Amino acid sequence: RYIQQPLLLEGKKFDVRSYLLIACTAPFLVFFAQGYARLTCGHYDLASDDLTVHLTNQCMQKKHPLYSQLKEETVWRMEHLNSYLNEKFREPSGLPADWVFTVFTERMKQIMLQCFLAAQHKLARSLGYFDLLGCDFLVDENFQVQIWATSNLSSPA
Question: Which parts of the chain span the membrane according to its record (predicted)?
């Protein structure tokens, strides 16, 4: 379902792209990477028909008329996201210090593990098999973490 009240960064919608590497299936060996935050170029408006304020991927953001000027502002390292949330939301929202690296990261890992466990029976159990999955997470204004989408970024070897 669409998250109508996402947490906004400087008035812009964002998501976090994280990665799950299935490095081996015989035996299973899985790694997690935190990834980065992706922001829209324009300010969020639920009523807007402009997809560039709703979808954060770069393919969509390139369609925004100011993309070339704002491109560098549409990707934040996790350290920047953590600092921003500490500064803007820690006290008013009662977040623990470094929420990005503690609560949020742990929640992403839990969700990705559940996705892996749900699909592991469909994976080929052979040497040389691997997969790289990209998972997109949204945070709503109540700091609830939702998985938005997953993408298979690799082909089995």
Answer: 20-37
Domain extents in the chain: 8-152
Note the pTM of the prediction, 2 decimals.
Answer: 0.89
Name, in order, each residue with C-beta under 8 angstroms of 103's C-beta and a sequence gap of 6 or more.
95, 96, 143
Q: Which residue has the tokens 């803007």?
A: 88
Whether CATH 3.30.470.20 fits 8-152: yes
DSSP for 83-112 reads HHHHHHHHHHHTPPTTTIIIIIHHHHHHHH
Compute CA distances 39 → 28, 31, 71, 118, whole Å.
Answer: 34, 25, 10, 30
